[in-house]
Structure formats: C-alpha cells, structure tokens
Amino acid sequence: MTSLTPQIESVVAAASASARTYAATSPADRARALGLLADALDAATPELVVIAMRETGLSSARLNGEAKRTAVQLRLFAETVVNGSYCGVRIDHADPEFVLGPRPDLRRTHVPLGPVLNFSASNFPFAFSVLGGDTAAILAAGCPVIVKAHSGHPELSDATGELARDVLRKMGLPDGIFQVIHGREAGVAVLKDSRVKAGSFTGSIRVGRQLADISAARPTPIPFFGELGSVNPVFITGDAVAERGSEIAAGYLASVAGSAGQLCTKPGFVFVQEGADLVVAVRSAALSLDMAEHRLLDRRIAENYAVRREAILASRGVTPTIVGSVRFDADGQGWVTPTVVSVSLNDFRFGYDVLAEEAFGPLSIIVEMPFGTDLAALLPEFYEGNLAGTLHLSRAEATGETENADELQALVAQLAQQVGRVLFNGWPTGVAVTPAQQHGGPWPATTNDSSTSVGTAAISRFLRPVAFQDAPAAFLPASLRDENPLRVPQALAPAGRSTAWGTRLGVI
C-alpha cells in the first residue's frame, strides 16, 4: 500500500469500505441513482455553465450541449443497468451425456471490479469529467469511483461533485462510492494504491502512457483504460470533390474549427488526389464561415499549439490554405483562428516526424496525392491507431460498382484494422451517445483497443467474469438463477445438445 496523506487515505479507505455494499445494490437502485444524477445535472446546468465558461473559455452553446449529452449518458446507463445485458449471463445446465464426459452445471456472469480511479479530461468539462461517461459506466457497473479533477476546471469539478454527492447521500448510499480529489501527485498515489482496482483516463499520449505504465508496474497490475492521441485521417475521392466540393469543404472547416479544434476526433489530416481542387473549395468556404477568435482551454495548451503550428508552417513544401492566427492576451491565454495547410505526399513523407504528430487545436493538413496512389498501402505507412477514419465518396462510388471499387474496399478494410470507427460522407467530430458506438482504437488512440469510452459497451471495462460451478441456488447471484428475478438476458445451453454440435452447419 502506498503512503497517502491523511485526506487522500480517508478517500481511498471510504471507497474500499463501500465497494461490497455498492456492488450488492439492486440494478433498480443503481439505475435510479443515475437517473437522479441526470435530473440534478439538468437543473444545475445554467449555473454550472457560467463556471465552465470562465474556467475553460468554451462557448455557452457548446457547454450547454455538452451538459445535455452528459445527462443523456447517465440516463442511457440507467437503462443499461435495468436491462442487464451487460452481465453477459451464460448458463450451461448439467449434462451427464456431454460428449466429453459429464458436464457440471456452469453459470457465468460479470461482477464489479471494485474502486476505480477516473482521471477527467480538460476539453470536455462535463462529458468526460466528474459526471462524464467514464463515471457513468463505473457507477453503472457497481464500482465506487474516485474522480481526479482536471486542473483546468477545479471550481466546476467541485460544484459538480458536490451536486452528485448530495444526490447519492439523499438516496442513503455510502459516501465512499463517489469522491473527487485534486492534484497530479494525489492521482498518482491513489493509482498505486492496492485498494484501487482499475483506472480510466482521457488526455495526452505522454501522460496517459505514464499512468498506464504505473498501473502495469504495480505488484498486482490493474487494467488501465486510457483514451490518448488521434489524428483521424480522412480520404476524399476526386469524384466526391467534383460532385460536392463546397459541401465537403464547409463540413471540413466546421469540424476543424469546432471548439477551437480541441477535440480528440478532429480531422487532423485529409488525403485527396492532386488536382481535385479541394484547396480552392476550402478557401472559398472560409469566406462564408464564422472564423472568429476562440480561446484555447489553458495557457499550456495554447503554448504547445503555437509551437506545433510554427513547426508545421516551417516544414518543407507546406503551403497555407488558411493562414489562421495565434494571439496571447495579457493573462497569457491563447486566442486562435483556424489554420489549414496543404502539402504534397512526397513532402509529407519528407517531413513526417514533424507533420504527423497531433496538433491539438484548430489546425489540419491537406495531403495531395498523385493519381493512382495505393490508399490501402498508404495508411499503415503513416499511422498506427486512431479513434476514427473517414471516407468521402461520390454517389456512384457509394454503390460499390465503380472502377475504383476494389481500391475503396481495400481502403475500408485497412481502416477497420487501424481505427475504432469508420465513417462515410461525414466528419468524426460529434460522437453519438448510443449503444452501438465505438470510441476507441489501436495504440496510441487508446491503451486498450478492445474497449470503448462511449456507448453502453463502456460498462464492460469495469467488470470481470466469474463462473459458478454446481452452486446451490441460494448462493447464486440473482442474474444466474433459473427463476431469473432480474429478467436479464440469459444464454442457455441445455443438456443433450453437445452430440449434435456442428451438424446443423453442414460441417460434419
């Protein structure tokens, strides 16, 4: 056990002490708690948004929309808890005639991991913060949560945390199931503590890797679910530009400029055929869009963005499409307008070490490729993993019957190997909060490419499977009992089926 300050020790001790009690709460009670948290957040949104605007520089419209999304997430997980599908219940009835010898009665479900430490994000002060998606999934799973507040919005974090604690306290739930702490040192100390059973994080590759390494280096390693860096490549065919270039350019700029480009799903790179006139369309679209200055989240982010932007602009062959700007005010806060540049594929290859790194802010790079470039081969040449990959097609190409259909099919197949979400004729910003969503991807997009931080599958990160063999009914979790009092989905394997395995498929 690590050495903790008395205050942090009390937090971890409370979380540990409440774990078994909270895990034993009924799905109905956990769902009610999530619903009440959503209601409280809705009611407090006006005053919380005022605090968030002051601390983050994000707009009222963006923050109100994000707060609504956060409440929707909480309600979605409430539905998921009641449904019970996340339990993954499988029941194999005892079978004395089993083909490999008598089979015992086996029943498998998932149980909560225990206390989880959630590092909140800077760029989503509601949706990936104190009551954001990770917290919702952790609470839905039946785990106590310790939220490490982000230093970029401490006042908002405390206000949101107090709101949540008040709701849970009034329900009679233990105080230890939801707590907020501050400070990097405190976060690292808690992550090392043996009573904490998992970690979640949204932020930079550098910090995420450090925390993942700490989690793995513990005497008993724990799962760590980090969402890190992503440049989200976009491929636009020449026919798509010819068919709807203005529409594509306007959508591209809106996606790059939204929230000053401080989104993990921003399209950082667009690959397009030379001569497709996308650059012309983007310049034209910029004249009709609101390109007003936007404050970046904090001084550190602004300083890093300014350095990255200058390095990109100074690279060989880089030509500004939209010059953009960076201005620091008297308080050291950075104010920006979008920058879009173009570069040939050869010069992109030459300057790869500088150009390929994520620029966290409103900057994107158009890479112009020679006609006939093998797109499927190009993708692994430059990128490891990303949250999203996008393909813009013409109406004819979307039928899958054009001359380049095989090339496009190969590109889609390669994208599916390297991203968590493949989009068509859209933009990766705006991640729908819905059961089928996948917000994750291979390294360095995330530390665990089989998980998601958005959508109902996110709950599985904070559960582990347990099987019960020949257990008396009185000792079974409710989800595994024959009478199924929770009415959860149960995948049944009755006795007598094993001798016919495979025959119905025509393989035997």
Helix content: 25-40%
* Total count of strands: 19
Radius of gyration: 25 Å
CATH superfamily of the largest domain: Aldehyde Dehydrogenase, Chain A, domain 1
Report the average pLDDT across residues.
96
What does this structure look like?
- The chain has 508 residues and is α/β, with parallel strands linked by helices.
- It has 2 domains: 237 residues, 3-Layer(aba) Sandwich (Aldehyde Dehydrogenase, Chain A, domain 1), CATH 3.40.605; 191 residues, Aldehyde Dehydrogenase, Chain A, domain 2 (3-Layer(aba) Sandwich).
- 39% of the residues lie in helices and 18% in strands.
- The protein contains 14 helices and 19 strands.
- It has a 7-stranded mixed beta sheet, with helices on both faces. It has a 5-stranded parallel beta sheet with strand order 5-4-3-6-7, sandwiched between helices. A 4-stranded mixed beta sheet has the order 18-2-1-19, with no helix packed on it.
- The chain is globular, with a radius of gyration of 25 Å.
- It starts with 5 loop residues before the first helix and ends in a 15-residue tail after the last strand.
- The relative contact order is 0.14.
